[in-house]
Amino acid sequence: MSFKATIIRHQAMIESLLTLEPQVSALAKRIKTCVEQGNKVLFFGNGGSASDAQHLAAEFVVRYYKDRRPYGAIALTTDTSILTAHSNDYDFNTVFDRQIEALGKQGDIAIGLSTSGNSGNVINGIKTAKQQGIWTCAFTGLGGGELMHVADDCIAVPVSETARVQEGHILIGHWLCETLDDTDYYEV
């Protein structure tokens, strides 16, 4: 595969994101309200999606490009003691459930990332969040998988190639940070 071919596929993915603008804009408004009310965003996923969850939580808490007060956010993928103890004592398919039960509350937002939309522990985490009255959103790839039917909203990057889906997720995440940084509420 040539470098040019990869760039062309990347460009096609970026252009496909324009269809998601109404959904992503609505999510930005929901997140803004969430953090203005002193609540937080819980991010979680596996593998590359776990890295994206951590990346976005860091951008929310530290900053994106503007010096501002921190936005409440937690990546449920960062505490190795919790991840390994829960997986050992219970089941990896419920590794996010327990953290959501402990850390989540009504008014928070849970965002589960899964390129296929079929990751069992992400599906279970979304279900647990909904049971606690937490609004949920899934970031997935083409079709949305099972998460399309479980989450309150599903932002499905309309491509099937895993790498392009992940690139779409982080681009959407960065735009969320950028638009939140552009609000007057959190400027320091």
What does the model show?
Helix content is 53%, strand content 13%. Strands 2-1-3-4-5 form a five-stranded parallel β-sheet, with helices on both faces. The protein is built from eight helices and five strands; from the N terminus they run ααβαβααβαβαβα. It is globular. The protein has 188 residues and is α/β, with parallel strands linked by helices. The longest helix has 20 residues, at 162-181. Helix 1 (3-16) crosses helix 8, helix 2 packs across helix 8 (162-181) and helix 4 crosses helix 5 (95-103). It has one domain: 3-Layer(aba) Sandwich (Rossmann fold). Strand 1, helix 3 and strand 2 (72-75) form a beta-alpha-beta unit. The N and C termini lie far apart (47 Å).
Keyword list:
5-stranded parallel β-sheet, SIS_dom_sf, about 190 residues, single chain, Rossmann fold, alpha/beta
Question: Could you give the distance between the termini?
Answer: 47 Å
- Label the CATH architecture: 3-Layer(aba) Sandwich
Order of helices and strands: HHEHEHHEHEHEH
Poorly predicted regions:
none
Domain SIS: 27-186
Protein name: SIS domain-containing protein
Pfam family, one: SIS_2
GO molecular function: carbohydrate derivative binding
What would you say about this model in short?
The chain has 188 residues and is of the alpha/beta class. The chain contains 8 helices and 5 strands.
Topology:
Layout (H helix, E strand, L loop, with lengths): L2 H14 L4 H16 L3 E6 L2 H14 L10 E4 L4 H10 L5 H9 L5 E5 L6 H12 L3 E6 L6 H4 L2 E4 L5 H20 L7
